[in-house]
Amino acid sequence: MSSKGLSTVILADLNRYYSYHGRDITTEGKTAIIRGAIIHLVFSRGFRAIFYYRLRNHAEKKNIRFLGGVIGIIDVLSNSIEIHPRARIGPGLFMPHPQCIVIGAGAVLGSNVTINQGVTVGASPGKEIEGQTEPVVEDNVLLGAGAKVLGPVTIGANAMIGANAVVVRDIPAWAVAVGVPAEVVNRVETPYHELLERAYQREII
Asked: Are 111 and 90 a contacting pair, CB within 8 Å?
């Protein structure tokens, strides 16, 4: 990923924190973007964790491992979130209640994924399907508080996983899944990130 590509992805991450409040920071100019990034780096552990992950992931790809290691130490000291630098995470990751979140080395997350506190996305020892050992979470998925997504499973786009659910087999797109193990109980009508934006709009009208 080029430096330009890195900044574009970081901006998409930052914008998720603004879109929840009905704003599009990407349209507000460089000064507003820089100010917003600094504010969120200081006060938002969720944004800070994904920012450090982006830098470490970029350093890994450029084979600058010393820099990645230094950033990793700073990350551990300032956050209670563990995102492996080799995980593949699309733009717009949003962690509104960032506490005790773990994302493993082989995990793949799409765009605009929302992760709540206590979530684990990682391998299940000994399980492998066609070379896949860790989860694939597609675009616009919500992982509820305490959810565990384990092993070579795929969660389809726009799905919602309920609090404390344990996902050990594939969940189709647009599904609502809850329980241990997680089972499909309903269908999503509106992606979660859109629901957040609508909820805020109702509050200010």
From this structure: yes
Measured between alpha carbons, how far is 165 from 177 in angstroms, rounded to an integer? 8
132-146 pLDDT, tens digit each: 889 999 999 999 999
C-beta atoms surrounding 39 within 10 Å: 13
Please give the residue range of the domain that contains residue 54: 3-204
The string of pLDDT tens digits covering residues 65-121 is 777 677 777 777 777 788 998 999 999 999 988 888 999 999 999 999 999 999 999
Name the DSSP letter for residue 12.
H
Four-residue CA torsion sign, 31, 116, 70, 77 = positive
CB 41 within 8 A of CB 14: no
- Token representation of residue 74: 């700073």
| Contact yes or no for 63/85 (Cβ under 8 A) | no
Number of domains in the chain: 1
Please state, in angstroms and rounded to a whole number, the distance separating the CA atoms of residues 14 and 25. 8
User: CATH number for the domain including 158?
Assistant: 2.160.10.10
The half-sphere exposure of 4 on its side-chain side, counting CA atoms within 13 A, is: 0
DSSP letter string over 141-201?
-EE-TT-EEESS-EE-TT-EE-TT-EE-S-B-TTEEEETTTTEEEEE-SS-HHHHHHHHHH
Residue whose tokens read 């799905």:
159
